[in-house]
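#struct-pred

JT: dropping the chains for the assembly here, can someone run the whole complex?
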Amino acid sequence: MQFTAQQIGILLNGNVDGNPDVTVNELAKIEEAGTGSLSFLANPKYESFLYQTNASIVIVGEDFVPSSEVNATLVRVKDPYSAFSILLEKYNTIKLNKVGIEQPSFVHPSARIGKDAYIGAFAYIGAGAIVGDNCKIYPQTYIGDNAEVGDDCTFFPGVKIYHDCKIGSRVVIHAGSVIGSDGFGFAPQADGSYNKISQIGNVIIEDDVEIGANSSIDRATMGSTIIRQGVKLDNLIQIAHNAEIGKNTVIAAQTGVSGSSKIGEQCIIGGQVGIVGHISVAKGSQIQAQSGVNRSIEEEGKKWAGTPFSSYTNQMRAQVIFNRLPDLERKLEQLEKALKDKL
Amino acid sequence: MQFTAQQIGILLNGNVDGNPDVTVNELAKIEEAGTGSLSFLANPKYESFLYQTNASIVIVGEDFVPSSEVNATLVRVKDPYSAFSILLEKYNTIKLNKVGIEQPSFVHPSARIGKDAYIGAFAYIGAGAIVGDNCKIYPQTYIGDNAEVGDDCTFFPGVKIYHDCKIGSRVVIHAGSVIGSDGFGFAPQADGSYNKISQIGNVIIEDDVEIGANSSIDRATMGSTIIRQGVKLDNLIQIAHNAEIGKNTVIAAQTGVSGSSKIGEQCIIGGQVGIVGHISVAKGSQIQAQSGVNRSIEEEGKKWAGTPFSSYTNQMRAQVIFNRLPDLERKLEQLEKALKDKL
Amino acid sequence: MQFTAQQIGILLNGNVDGNPDVTVNELAKIEEAGTGSLSFLANPKYESFLYQTNASIVIVGEDFVPSSEVNATLVRVKDPYSAFSILLEKYNTIKLNKVGIEQPSFVHPSARIGKDAYIGAFAYIGAGAIVGDNCKIYPQTYIGDNAEVGDDCTFFPGVKIYHDCKIGSRVVIHAGSVIGSDGFGFAPQADGSYNKISQIGNVIIEDDVEIGANSSIDRATMGSTIIRQGVKLDNLIQIAHNAEIGKNTVIAAQTGVSGSSKIGEQCIIGGQVGIVGHISVAKGSQIQAQSGVNRSIEEEGKKWAGTPFSSYTNQMRAQVIFNRLPDLERKLEQLEKALKDKL
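RK: done, full complex below.
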């Protein structure tokens, strides 16, 4: 893919300032850009890089006035960061634009595949499964019997969707993630062994969800584990059976949500957080990395931290004093002694 | 799968009370059940749902007397919850009853596959490997050279069993789990680099073990990493080389057990727990989620919590005071001042 | 594989003491060894096992004098542990010496495969990808378009390398690990939803790196996430976009490194550690398991622990007092009372 400054200007509705015929074939940060790269300058604190960069084209604000000589061709636009984001997205859309069915792949005769889909080699589409239009199902992916996938989804290599799960449209799932494995439910027996409780529910993932690599979302015992619209999950996350993650909630890597817990909308949850089962977390809650949430959060929109968690400000204070505990104990002993001596 | 109330009654050895010809094709919770669903009522506190439910059949206790009108056909049995569990299991057994060898799959000429096995497409069975009777090996699963798998096992899609590992009977492993990867052993060198210590042992998994999705169990350096009979492991768990997990021990998601540690029988270990290497944990220990176990636990049957861990009751008390540390420090300062002023 | 004591003696440049024709076909610890096993005695505290072992051959120090009768044939060498390590490595090299291209596999016509490579069944090598000489690419592995892999690499079953990633030579990656999944980058929108920031960078893994099972390393937004030479990563580790892990650094299982953080050379990082984004960790830092690193570490070569972390010795002291907090509070209350009473 190679573009001239002129083509970039037309694409971004911007003005070209410099050689309109210079070409670029990659996108790069201004401090790392080489010849043939296109970069951007949005934050004035990076301006000095503009006078040193080898980038062939730099996107700048429409009113930007350089204070020194610039070698790159400038493309002037209203919002350089947004303009650059558009280019990033176009770049990836072109780059990852796979279509067609590679062989060998396994599509059960009773499965239905939408138009313009990509089915990679060694992908498996089970009996009665439905895959919507424009989906990209990368190699070695598994879509179990009667699973349903909407339109415009991308499942990277090795994603596993168990039978009966339902995935919305524009859902992206990264390599190795597992959707619909059995919930962890066992009934203790008199002899110390455990009997498995069959897990016959499913997982429902609504539209516009993105899930990172090697995460696992268990199916419900009965009913559904539900990931609501717009949720973003990072890598290596555990969502247990019958949990529900609210609309537009974002969860960072290695966090675990236990069985039947309900996380509200618009929450922001850090990495390595643990959330116990059968609780609810209020809308807009922000939970710091490595926290342990062991009871329901009722108040909306608050910040929390610690194990067991409390308000963010309280934790910050307590943690500071924790580090001074040896001092505190020493003072207490001195006081005891002083009191004994003097009284 | 469609059943009449009469068929359900015969299956569960129960009495049909209402229309015996009404049919059901799914199982559901009583509060969520629609027409065509079979549900159950075991706990009296859910009785009101019985008078509102759209379920076509509800299993109830043999002596249950409704206090209001019921639309559903009732099936009366001794223990409604157990009866329903039996149906859940039968449902899943029928649903997941796959048999036969899908193509393309790879079975080495020297491998042996038992009777009535299911080998999914893109599964790989290596040289000298043995797979027992009635096993279900889902698509994209890997069973390495000379690995042995007993009877009645289910490996969901993408399970990876390395060479020489030995798996018992009735073992269930969920998608993406890895059995037999190299232990993490490296010898530091004078120049700061590390030399790999070859890991030539294996993993032994005994009968009736269940392992969740995306967990990893490393092979021993020499000898075996051992998962004893009846152990249940959740998702994203790490078991390091030469560890041993005792009979009927249950471990929740995202917990890690370090190298050469031995966990006793009948332990219950929460999620995100870390257990250091070369220690032992006594039989029947219960360890709270997110704990850090940094030394052996000698006493059997106790509850533990915290990082580093101590007795559960001690931790609970200390954690409460931790949250009051700012108060505690203020009091101490006031005391200091008071003492100075007054003496 | 079967070897005589004489062959072992020649291989290790050692002297055979006993029957030179006895044969061995496996390696074992001296306390577990049976007939046909080769073992070693390096640590004098295990000497008593030598007089009980069923091992057929035991490697001992060149000057070792037994104090009792020995049944095994001895092979005397300068350094028994090193000699045994060499045998371990040879054993594995012979055992895992796969070569050739199994079918069905998918190698794009524009991909280049080096000489003497092993490509397992159901492996996928994308358009423009390069795989070096002597690589072992196990079944169900994915190497995306234009990815580059050096010589002598081993990727175990189900490894996923996304497009454009660059892997050095002698790199080992265990089953299920994902290299190059999208960084977790989303721009919040006015309506509460998030827009994906396209991730067009890649992952660079230098020579001699080993990565465990089911780990994930995200590609950079732009530029590269970099794993430097000689790094060893355990299982279930998360490395976020644009992070950099310094030369010869070792990280234990289930640890997470957040976006854009730079870990120095020769660090030793325990399991389940969390490291926040946009910080740097100095060369030679040692970080205890389950720590939370929430700011940069500037001093080189120090030990750290705790969440939030502080110096190892300070944490150890504070943690001891934490467990005594109920006592401390009681004392404080007594002091308060005493002061009130007496003054």
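JT: nice. Chain A touches chain C through 62 residues (CB under 8 Å). Helices of chain A lie at 5-12, 47-50, 80-95, 312-323, 325-342.
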